[in-house]
């Protein structure tokens, strides 16, 4: 599959990137110009998908044809210098609205990323991503400040997303860890949290998904998604890993990628070395 080829070939790529049709801060052409300038060979757009309720971050359903046409136009103009892909970061909302449902399954996309940003509450779906100040307010308004409940909801949505399928790459699969640990320090070390992630990773491995390591927050908060503590299990299971910047502006298309790729490579080499020495004992 060509995605694996891109990831494994050492070519310069980014497969997760936003646009003017969602919450990106620049026109798609500006991202392409930046990518060409930096010697990228492969660049994929993945605007936040349409969802069945109002959201300022997500693409409107009516804009989807315009988005796809813009990828085509840019391919025509820059296709001799870079391979461009039309993707989407498809939100898992429910069994009726996700990457596997008819609408997304039949869209002419090159590949699909799927991520969880919303969890259900008694008063509708709540975006649990984004700034901690907002997250803290929502915890009081929608969830009686029950952080463990919200963490469980996030991983329930994630499990349901992987079960439903219809996508190639799972986006930032432990994203809730950031806001949850700011809300309740050390929560990611708690057995209930570890077991939720373990179950999700088992399912990811079973389904043969590509896992993204998302570098968007690395320069700001030092965090990668998924966190480093989960990498070894992924690597030992032979999971294909894509390192994506999740750029919302052109200057950040490469942000955090080189150091993260290098770090992951060292981990792979260490595992290989240990396996070899174990086998010779
Ligand atoms: Zn996302
Ligand atoms: Zn994104």
In short:
With 281 residues, this protein is α/β, with parallel strands linked by helices. It contains 11 helices and 10 strands. The protein has one domain: Metal-dependent hydrolases (TIM Barrel, Alpha-Beta Barrel).
Descriptive overview:
The chain is α/β, with parallel strands linked by helices. It has a single domain, classed as Metal-dependent hydrolases (TIM Barrel), CATH 3.20.20. Helix content is 45%, strand content 12%. The strands form three sheets. Strands 4-5-8-9-10 form a five-stranded parallel sheet, with helices on one face. A hairpin with a 2-residue loop joins β6 and β7. The chain is globular, with a radius of gyration of 19 Å. The site of one zinc ion has 4 residues, from loops. The site of one zinc ion (ZN) has 5 residues, from loops.
């Amino acid at each position: 599959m060509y995605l694996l080829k891109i990831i494994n070939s050492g070519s310069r790529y980014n497969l997760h990137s936003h646009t003017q049709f969602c919450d990106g801060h620049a026109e798609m052409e500006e991202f392409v110009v930046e990518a060409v300038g930096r010697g990228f060979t492969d660049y994929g757009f993945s605007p936040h998908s349409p969802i069945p309720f109002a959201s300022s971050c997500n693409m409107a359903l009516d804009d989807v044809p315009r988005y796809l046409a813009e990828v085509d136009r840019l391919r025509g103009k820059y296709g001799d210098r870079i391979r461009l892909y039309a993707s989407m970061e498809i939100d898992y909302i429910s069994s009726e609205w996700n990457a596997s449902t008819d609408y997304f399954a039949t869209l002419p996309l090159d590949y699909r990323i799927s991520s969880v940003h919303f969890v259900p509450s008694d008063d509708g779906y709540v975006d649990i991503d984004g700034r901690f100040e907002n997250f803290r307010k929502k915890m009081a308004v929608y969830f009686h400040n029950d952080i463990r409940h919200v963490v469980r909801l996030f991983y329930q949505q994630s499990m349901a997303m992987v079960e439903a399928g219809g996508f190639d790459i799972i986006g930032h699969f432990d994203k809730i860890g950031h806001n949850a640990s700011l809300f309740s320090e050390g929560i990611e070390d708690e057995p209930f949290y570890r077991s939720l992630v373990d179950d999700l990773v088992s399912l990811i491995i079973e389904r043969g998904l590509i896992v993204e390591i998302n570098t968007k927050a690395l320069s700001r908060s030092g965090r990668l998604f998924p966190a480093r503590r989960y990498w070894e299990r992924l690597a030992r299971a032979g999971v294909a890993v894509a390192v994506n910047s999740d750029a919302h502006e052109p200057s950040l298309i490469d942000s955090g990628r080189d150091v993260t790729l290098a770090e992951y490579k060292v981990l792979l080499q260490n595992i290989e070395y240990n396996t070899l020495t174990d086998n010779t004992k």
